[in-house]
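Check the record.
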Amino acid sequence: MIEEYADRVWRGETDDSIVDMGMAGGGVVTISEGLGWWSGFGNVITFETAGELALFDTSSPFSAAQLHQDVRGWSRAPLTTAFYSHGHIDHVFGIAPFEESGPRPTVYAHEAVVARFERYLLTNGYNAVINQRQFQSSKLRWPTDYRNPDATYRDALTVRLGGLTFELFHAKGETDDATVAYVPEHRLLLPGDLFIWVTPNCGNPQKVQRYPREWVHALRRMAALDAEIMLPSHGAPIFGRDRIRQALLETAEWLESLVTQTLDLLNAGARLDEIVHAVRPAQHLADRPYLRARYDEPEFVVRNLWRLYGGWYDGNPANLKPAPEAVLARSVAELAGGPQALADAALKALSEGDERLAGHLAEMAALAAPDDPGVHRVRAEVFSARAANEASLMAKGVFTWAAAESGDRATP
């Protein structure tokens, strides 16, 4: 039963999150009469009411065909309504197969989703590169054709379909275009990506601005709804009012602690470097299965808060108008006795357990001698070690990519 599976995830006995996708490939699981849950990289919640089908989120371009097949195994009703929890591509690309074989559904979303799609077109190449790096998929291509919503709203909207009521409200968190839905007939909360079974993804180092403080407010607003079922757009369901409230309120507490610490230090005039190395997440919540830093990381959230409230200047005057990185690297290499001396120092730091220092030295050596295979062998070793010892997908992706870059250049 789905309740037993969800209980195992709650107790930490099995994993299901934006990273794990524990039940992906299992088709649509019936939660209650007329309510289904499809697990994938971008969950989809299905509704059948009065002979109509509705979807909350629609999954990715890579799984649209499978979603259509699985949903049609659950319901033959025509798809008339769909909701985007936000505009990330793993939530907005599953409608096409339904439209090819049936009527055009009405798609509801926050008004900022349209602006997101426009930005994706402006930065198509960049988004392809950063997602190839994040997910270690060199063949990934960023879409250029988007299914725009038919109806948008700004603050809140109520949609009635058959015997169901979808109470929508806007929130900021991972994105500026998030929609939360509450369906009172099922006492169902649909948080989208505002809860993903890992620490909040609001510091992603390669993505645009996120909103940690507003995310805290959204989590508390959702907790106040007293839902009995929560179906996130990533990760397992949560059943029971008390568990839902605990998960949402403790996530809010965890995130608010980072916000408070960062703002206190920022207001005291601390540099970004000092803040990044001083702020720590709440230790009494470290054992929660929904608060593991396996996708994003606390220090990335801190940097995002600095960007939001402090701008891009990090407090170091040398970084205001810096020398080109390669020029600085060559100067330091000369002082150290050459690029190989920096590479040797990187390996020494790595052997002594200081991976952060090793990363700086290896990168500097490669910038000083970009065509030296020996230097690149060291850089590959250092960043391979860094990737192996990281827990978050974000860090693993960047370090693995760096190691592969140098691996390709390590042979003369």
Remarks:
- The chain has a mean pLDDT of 96.
